[in-house]
Amino acid sequence: MIIDCAYDEKLSDELVKYLTENAFQVTKDPDGIIRSNDVTLTRDDLDLFLKKTGKIKELQIIPSEKNVLIIATKIPIEGFGFVRCSICGFVMYEEELMAHERAHGIFLV
Ligand SMILES: [Zn+2]
User: Fold this and answer.
1) What is the mean pLDDT of residues 17-42?
2) CB 36, CB 18: distance < 8 Å
3) What is the chain's mean pLDDT, rounded?
4) How much distance in Å is there from the Cα of 82 to the middle of ligand 1?
């Protein structure tokens, strides 16, 4: 698994310390990247780290490619090119929204 702390060296240092203390095998790379071949390390462990340190308020875990988790500051979904449907709240790519909302129209008529 690769944990990408998005260039946050302080966060990655803290996370490496936490994971090492919890007996996980991790390696720290530059640019806030943490690598681990430890199969017992899961997203739940990272969630727990964020909860225990209170960072859950400002940080979130974003699954990226296979085996890559990004820990980044919470930003509105719109920042990723995602939008929320005003009718049902479903989150999708911006370019899909028009067709999606049109579909609602058909159902509502
Ligand atoms: Zn909708």
Assistant:
1) 95
2) no
3) 87
4) 13
pLDDT at position 76, please? 63
State the angle between helix axes of 9-21 and 43-52 in degrees (0 to 180), rounded to the nearest 10.
Answer: 110
Token representation of residue 36: 């681990």
Phi-psi region of 92 (alpha: psi -120 to 50; beta: other; left: phi over 0): beta
Expressed in angstroms and rounded, the spacing between residue 53 Cα and the centre of ligand 1 is 36
Amino acid letter for position 82 = F
- CA dist., res. 60 & res. 52, Å (int): 14
Can you point out the beta strands (E) in 30-87?
A: 33-35, 59-63, 68-73, 82-84
Q: Residue 84 forms beta bridges with which residues? A: 91
CB 14 within 8 A of CB 53: yes
Q: pTM of this prediction? A: 0.67
